[in-house]
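Objective 1b. Sequence-to-structure analysis of Putative transcriptional regulatory protein y4xI.
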Amino acid sequence: MRTLFVDHHADLTRAVGVALGDSGFAVDIVRTLEQASSAFSCASYEVLLLELALPDGNGLDWLKQLRSEGHSVPALVLSDVDDLEKRIAIFNGGADDFLLKPVCTNELIARMRAVLRRSVQMTDPIIVFGNLHFDPIGRQVSVAGHPLTVARRELCILEHLLNRAGRIVPRSQLEDHLYSFNDEVSANALEVGIYRLRGYLSRSGATPRIKTVRGIGYILECD
């Protein structure tokens, strides 16, 4: 799940970025609203983390502008503002949740998953394809009712392929959703991840299989 984190406090963004990465989020960290707008113009995000007091403006004004333009990305505001009227203004401005600084990373991740769950807008968000079940919020996979443990990177690949099961997913699209701007990615990183994911599926007896479409990308099919 690709995340945009807008905050100019280096220590906080570094710590939160590591924690989110360990939990399966690809995080782009920017320091200003200008950088945030540029990031939005060239990437698609599943969740937004936003500080209000930024060097080049007010984060809430920027969020209001996003909403007016039709962007529905779930947004969590992080702030040291502990005033009821101001918190109400934050929600009225388009925030889906609010977390008071200093943040606990475990609580932040739980709240991110909660707003993502609400954004799915369905009673049962479980993705089913063949004999494979995937819970995108709990990050849990099972095959024929048996739990399957999948490494973080391969789980991200599986999620993206499942969301487009039966359709070709271009290589570039997979890479855009798996890696943040700052990730150091080797030329064959995606191929290695696909190879490992195929191993997980094969050894577990999963009916879905990954087919390579040479020169284009990959497609998840089912026996």
